[in-house]
Structures are given as structure tokens and as C-alpha cells.
Automatic annotation (TrEMBL), chains A, B:
This protein's UniProt keywords: DNA-binding, Transcription, Transcription regulation
Superkingdom of the organism of origin: Bacteria
Stated name of the protein: DNA-binding Lrp family transcriptional regulator
Cellular component terms (Gene Ontology): cytosol
UniProt keyword annotation of Disulfide bond present: no
Gene3D superfamilies given in the database record: 3.30.70.920, Winged helix-like DNA-binding domain superfamily/Winged helix DNA-binding domain
DNA sequence: GTACGCCTGCACATGTTGCCCAGTGATCAG
DNA sequence: CTGATCACTGGGCAACATGTGCAGGCGTAC
């Protein structure tokens, strides 16, 4: 479950140069190819590395506007709302949370005007009582994992 | 900038089987290898595909708790706060937003108790006036891009 | 009609993968 | 101490993929 230092280096290396092969990886790490391969396999079957899917930039796809919407759900409608939101392509992510809202979702849109359409589509559903939206202006820290990997592979 | 149907199929294919090679890809798509290669190169230099970094699961690293914190910042302290948050490994993502809060950040922690430590570290900084945190219970829609790619590659 | 971009199909040298093996050193139970 | 297990090394092999280059077809824009 926890990862050791070599695992950490593997992940960092892959993060920096994702298209690297196992052989090149083993050379950089100074271990035998079999070792690198075994470690990588283990990380994947452990679920530490979930995959190597392409990281697609919504902005480059024509969706430069990101927003977060906090939703309040009518009692007992959670499952319906989840199913509804899953059908909206502009909903990139959905969490159920504690706190003032019941759900938090990440949206994208083609423009601020288009965001209105997306929000209408998201909110135009019976189980949603209230929604409050925050439009993202800047993204000073894009989704990252490397500092955490470093932390995890040092401490353990 | 916009992507066509073939680009869309390339991304979908890569999302499903990320470790696929260009040759295999061209076979599946029914195009020449050079074409697949050229398209892939273009998608990457366009920035549509930002990379193929490993998708690491924080839970598998020992950080099973996720939370979102909304921060209110003292006027003019934005840059300092951003720099501060960038140094905290448990801050996976940071956005500046319109709306009630000024910033929204995604946090992870080793446990609910550990979340307190993380929040203290995040909030224990002069420019932050107020923070409200929502702990994630479930994640019915994990970060996804495929429906959007489908939409974008059909419509254009 | 001509230049251009995009695609096809082919070829080559080189590098990589998946798979096999034998051997070493550390750890641990009996 | 003995034997078992495990992770790692280092090597070898056939099959396959990659980067690259090139000639030619086809539709579009001007």
C-alpha cells in the first residue's frame, strides 16, 4: 500500500517523461529492467497508479470556462441527481460533501454565456433545490500529485 | 484548435488503452501509421493532449480523505497566499474564483484527524481571513473528460 | 491549374518488449 | 543452522514498435 523511495522515483520519472519505456526507466534509476518492470506492475495492480490516460485540456477543446457549483439536494433525491449529472458532458467531476452544500461539481463551458446554458441544464432537475456557482478565474496550482508522492515516498 | 472526429477517436482510444502504440492505434482506427502519428503529434503540440502522466490515486498513497476548502483572502494578499498554498503538498489544486469565497482548494489528508492538521497548516497564514471546508464523502463522477471529447468531436 | 495540406503505403536501421533463465543476498520460520 | 521465500541482478532471444524518409494520390483554395 505505502510506497518506498524507489516507487517514488518511478512515479516522479513517469510524471516528468511519461512516454519513457521500462528499459530507459531502469537505466535512469540504476536498477535492472526486471526490477523496474516488477515495481511498475505492482504500482499498477496496487492501484497507486490508476493509469496513463491522456490529460486533455478542456480549454483546447473549446471549453475555456471552468466553474464549481455547490448544489443542495432535496431529501432522498441524491441518486436521481447523481444520475442526472452523470449525463451532462460538461460536468467533469461530482462529489457529495458534508457542509453547507450537499454536492460539489466541476463544470466547463464554452464561454460565460454558455455557462448559463450548462447551469440551466444542471440545475433544471427536480431534486436540486439550490445551486451556487463560483467561476474560476485563475488556476495557480493545477491538479498535481508530485509533492504528495515525494512526501509519501520519503516518510515511509 | 477544435478537434475532428478522427482526433476524437484517437483520444477515446488512448483513454481506454493508454499503453497502446501508434502502430496498433493506426490499425484500430483504419488509417495509415503516419496519419495516426501526425494526428497525435498535432494534438500534443496543440495542447489538447497535455501529456500522459501517471494518474496516481491519493487514497492508495495513504491519503484517503479529500476535502474542498473555500478561502477568503485579505485584500492584496492573494499572491502571498498562492505561494503559501503551493508549498503544502496536501493542496492538490487551487483556483481563484468569483463568488462568496476568493479561492477554492482541494485538499487530501491521511484521516479526518489529519485533515485538521492540514487545514491548520493551510489556514495558518496571515492573508487568510476565513476558511470553510467541505469533506468529500463520495465521488459519484470522478474527473472525466471523455463525454466532453465525444461532444466536441461530434459537433465540429 | 497549380500549390498546398493531408493522407497512403512502403522501407530501413535501431530500440524496446515480453519472456525465459541462473545466481546472489536478505529475511524468516522451524 | 537449514531450508524456503522473496526481491533483485544480468544475460539472452525472437517478435515487434518506433523514428524517419520518400513517392505518390486526392481534394480544396485561390
Amino acid at each position: 500500500m505505502a510506497i518506498d523511495h524507489l516507487d517514488g522515483r518511478i512515479i516522479l520519472l513517469l510524471a516528468r517523461e511519461p512516454r519513457i519505456g521500462v528499459l530507459e526507466m531502469s537505466r535512469r534509476l540504476g536498477v535492472a529492467r526486471g526490477t523496474a518492470q516488477a515495481r511498475l506492475d505492482r504500482l499498477q495492480s496496487n492501484g497507486v497508479i490508476r493509469g496513463f490516460g491522456p490529460q486533455v485540456d478542456p480549454a483546447a477543446l473549446g471549453y475555456p470556462v471552468t466553474a464549481f457549483a455547490t448544489l443542495q439536494i432535496r431529501q432522498g433525491q441524491g441518486a436521481d441527481v447523481r444520475a442526472h449529472l452523470a449525463t451532462v458532458p460538461e460536468v467533469l467531476e461530482l462529489h457529495t460533501t458534508t457542509g453547507t452544500g450537499d454536492m460539489l461539481c466541476r463544470l466547463v463551458a464554452r464561454s460565460n454565456a454558455d455557462l448559463q446554458r450548462v447551469i440551466d441544464r444542471v440545475v433544471g432537475f427536480d431534486g436540486i433545490v439550490r445551486a451556487s456557482t463560483a467561476i474560476v478565474m485563475e488556476n495557480p496550482v493545477p491538479l498535481r500529485i508530485i509533492p504528495l508522492v515525494e512526501q509519501a515516498s520519503l516518510g515511509e
